[in-house]
Amino acid sequence: MPSSISTLGLALLSTWIAPPTRLAPVDLALVAAYLVAITVFGLRFSKKAGKQDRSLKTYFLAGNTIPWWAIALSIVSAETSTLTIVSIPGVAFGGDFGFLQVVLGYMVGRVLVALLFLPRYFRGEMLTAYQLIDQRFGHTLHKVTAGLFLITRAAAEGVRVFAISIVVGIAIGTGDTLSIAIISALTLLYTFEGGMAAVIWTDVVQMGLYVAGTVVALFTLGAHIPGGWTQIHAVAAPLHKFHMLDFSLNLTQNYTFWAGLLGGSFLTMASHGTDQLMVQRMLAARNLRESRIALLSSGVVIFFQFTLFLLIGAGLFVFYGLHPQVFASSDRIFPSFIVQQMPHGVAGLLVAAILAAAMSNLSAALNSLASTTVVDFYMHLRPQADGAERTLISRTATVFWAVVLFAIAVYSIQHGGKGHVVETGLSIASVAYGALLGVFLLGTLTRYATQTGAIAGMVFGFTTNFILWLPSITPIRQIGGIAIPHIAFTWFVLIGSSVTFALGSLASLIFRKQSLNKATAAALILLLATPFGRAEKPVILSEAEGPASGIAPDFTPVSALIQRAIAEKKLPGAVVVIGHGGSIVFERAYGNRALEPSIEPMTEDTIFDMASLSKVLSTTVAVLQLYEQGKIDLDAPVAKYLPAFAQNGKDRITVRELMTHYSGLPEDVDLKDDWGLTTPDKAEGIRRAMASVPYGPAGVTFKYSDINFITLGALVESISGETLNSYAKEHVFKPLEMAETMYHPIFGYCSPSYSWEPPPYGHSDPRLGPPQRCSSSANSALIRLALEKNPRTSPTAHDNEGSSATNPLFDHLLRGTVHDPTTRRMGGVAGHAGVFSTAADTAKFAQALLDKLLFDKGPFPLKQSTLKLATSPNEPSTAVKTATIFTADGKPTTGPASRGLGWDLNSAFSRPRGEVFPITTKGHPGSFGHTGFTGTSLWIDPTTDTYVILLANAIHPRGGAPISVLRGQVATAAAKAIHACPVSTICDDVIVTADSGEIQPDAPRLASETWVSGAATLTGIDVLEQTNFVELKEAAKRHDGHLRIGLLTNQTGLDSHGRRTVDILAHAPAPIQLKALFTPEHGLFGKQDTEHLKAEEDAVTRLPVLNLYGPKPSDKRPKQTDLANLDAIVIDLQDAGVRFYTYESIVGYFVEASAAAKKNGHDLEIIVLDRPTLTASLAADGPISDPGLEAYVNYMVEPSTPAMTLGELAKFVQGEIASQATVTVVPMRDWSHAEFFGDTHLAWVNPSPNLKSARAAVLYPGIGLAETTNISIGRGTDTPFEHIGAPWIQSKELADYLNGRNIPGVRVTPTTLTVAEDANKYPSHGQTIPGVHFEVADRKAFEAPEFGIELLSALHRLYPAEFQLAKAQTILCSASTLAAIERGDDPRAIAASWSPALKEFDARRRKYLLYQ
């Protein structure tokens, strides 16, 4: 039974009330009182200073009167700042306690500063640290170091000042700029007047306040979580949130033991030994001894303080797991918690505490910048200036730097959303710190170092660090063909100081007698300052140029393609990585990773749901490893390893046939019932795969099937004895150092040290469930939500499986939980989907694969020979030659679909190859790749040592059109950029062209599909949004300034962003008011296939749903009582384009209701948001129904295919039947009757439960004519309307007969159908029956209504006793057509007989057409 904790978690989710977003008045009053009080407190020191001398020593060093403990607290306060308080909890929220490793280094570094630097500072009685350089080396280097301090300190402090806006903006609601201005002005006031004494003593007060506030926050967090800190530890500990020590020697990670100990030590030596911000505080001590005590004791305090901040981050991680909320960045999490969750009074004190840290740090920065400006520059220019002049200049410098920091902070606002602000600030400082520390070490540890040598070393050290920093701030990844290594910022100071010291020593020995003049010093300052500006146009050089071409790769077309796709709303955002010649040559993030519930910018390190890329990233590698170990024979029957797989005629299907998708199995397991929605059920998913029924023989046709890889995942578990996620982690991801690649399982949490998950398949009965102390859903809500809240994870779509009654997370936005419905029901881990990863990790995988495949080197965990086998054609020799494939230049054609082992070579899914990368054929290696439904793709070309990664959130927030064409265009542009084909060919002309037509994983393109150029179709709802609801506003004017609307819609009512028309109209501007929802047959979510529809309520708007479908004719019509309080009915439905599809009738009934209401004095308008028909129809076709047979499947006298959209049909009904009705149509843009649905770029959404693909939509106007007879048209199978069957049909006989008729555009093959046994009781339910399968080879030549007559005639001719032709009259509605079939007339002659009536109908139809 589900645990109480899980129930609590879900209950909290459902009842969660939006928290306040701003401070309460009492809290604002406390904040204001604090700001005034601390400013007045700081001004006290101005009066004290006025009674003493106004010397620089008094202003900048407080006259050496400050006690050691106050200096210690001031040092901690200066290290803390707002930046630390808001950012460090965010570090723990998204990671662990690894930051404390750096703090250990901070403590070691303090010891070295106390021993090396402090004695020299006090010996010389200095005002700034850089005076030491002046004494040791001379004026030139003195100016260089002091100037570098001013530049880098201003840049770093500007970022810190920016952090102020985060807190003030959240707490008070002021804009970022105004927030910064308020705090900056108040801090400037007391710093300007009081000098260093004011700085230190306000530091002491403010540190006491924010430490006390932090402790209060810890207690408050515990009180907000059931079970308090015990529960926080229980949830966070298994997820390693308290993990601290990482002893790996990895220069790419910020937080390891060695990076902390060494990097942190050198960082502290630089910050506390060479940075005037800290040195100035220590110089204010009474003597050397007290200065040392202050420095060392501050290290103990800082460790304690950072631990408190990290604990808060862990607590927030658990809290926001229970109460999901999206933040613009992790730096906003803690401030948001304070404002939204803290009790009144406490929240105000905590915000005041954070502002205290801000003001403390800002005041120190202003004082140190001013002191360096005056002492190190002005006093050298005006040594004769008296005390009054120097004090005036000091105050002027303070004001000047306040303005500079304000400007930098404002500039940072537009860049503050990426990463942690604390890491940004530290990385800026670290770039310069290395060179500064190296110079100070040269001056203190050597006697031979000269000014010339020290400057040369400093230039080299700074340049080295800046180059290492470049990839984090620009797209540059290489310089001069040499890749820039990725180095964590924690190593910058160590590297920079070592380079400075080593090269400074060498240069000193070489240039012992040379000196530099003032002009050279100025040039050096400019040289060192230049990198902090922005390069106009950084150039990325790479080996892609090649010695012969001499042309640098230009990836501008790649960016143009992605940016245009985002502008056209084909996807919210994306990350593109292109690798070539052994390194990354292009990497960039575009757009947004989230649009709901708030906008989040895309970043390069975004974590994506990789969807079907899991097949090659995980399962394929795992199977091939077991093949290498001799545990799997690729050509052995799967049933040899998994006996349960043999059922239903699958005993001879081989492992290779699963890996190539030539198994003859359908696309997916049955998802019609509610299995796995409430509690994950891995066993049931595998059982359904084992029980699947082939649609045809193995080794003949290619059909992309998730069942294949569900089975392969079970095979890995059964043979290895490990769960798939554990196996992939240890044997695939770990060897490749793919640290952020993993499955996100949804299983049970039992204790801090134990988490239950189903055992590997075949190793015990998984239905036994978890131990008694756990349950299959114990705390699963907490675990799932904890995964979801990684702020870098891109959300996908809303969970639309089942209903709110059967699915606890129905309509919740999926974030961190796998999107694939089958994998989600199985608990997040399956062979076909479930892996989450980043572009960087995917690049590691691709590069390692190329290295092993091309050079037989590197960590890829397969042999070179195995990779060659896997990426070569493995399709069977018996494969049919009618599948969709592509020519070398990317044009669709037909032939045998070519697949490797797991990898795609040339099939209907190979569009991402583009037009340049070569096709792999037998004997000629080429490129290969794979895609994922969520918008992910990877294409690899060994012939040019290149890979192209495109990771997108294309289905966010509510589905979206496939991006296969975009993938191909990006690959083409990438290939041309690296000159993947010879110079002087078409590759040199990189042109961005529009191209449409999509290949969907769940709906492969038809063999003859035309790739139409043109813009994406905008449906009526899109046009309504673009015109700011002008049609509805005009309607409101006709109704006394208000518009109360009812909406007739279902699951197809979506705009191009995937947003529901329901939600759009519910939030439409006044005076539009959504008051009622109506749905046609199948209900609001399109899943009910019965006349007895269950009552529904929309979960978002809470509006009841009036279902217009039932057993009586009156049930299907709107009632005037339901319309009485409405001014208009808005209709947004996707029609199928045939008269027997009942959405046409429901529209007609509403138009009639409008006319009836007008007669009764009720002005009820009908407003149709138009949508395309599913098939191209330039003219009406099919038998015209007889008068007097009007019914729900035959609204009026018309052909079976009337060739009108619902908007046109509504105008037709108004003009021909209900003239008093008021009908308005919001027409589409960029659509014509010549277009098939696949040409529109619109996402496919099943318009009804059994119309599941664009393939079926093309066949439906023909096969649908037989729907009411005694054959199965595929209802209850995975592909209705693509095949038919009956127990008495002879499959080969019927296929041969129909093929012998030479029906244009269609091929017929024998098959079997397995019809589900469920509550619908479809014809032949629970049986496997013989039948035939239809494939449209040329949809333009294919005439569906005539084909329907061919089918009826064939069944009547071959099976006159069994086939009940008379029942077809329900759909035909034409006595003459039925009689002609009964007589045995040629179907072509029957179709020709319709011509006169069709011409007459077309003449009437044209008057109402809105499109060509």
UniProtKB/TrEMBL annotation:
Residues 1258-1411 form the Peptidoglycan beta-N-acetylmuramidase NamZ C-terminal domain. It is a multi-pass membrane protein. Its main location: membrane. One of its GO terms (molecular function) is peptidoglycan beta-N-acetylmuramidase activity. Keywords: Membrane, Transmembrane, Transmembrane helix. PROSITE patterns: NA_SOLUT_SYMP_3. It is found in: Membrane. GO terms for cellular component: membrane. It comes from the Bacteria. The chain crosses the membrane at residues 27-46, 58-78, 98-119, 162-192, 204-225, 255-272, 293-322, 342-362, 392-413, 425-445, 452-470, 482-503, 515-533. NCBIfam families: sss. This is Transporter, SSS family.
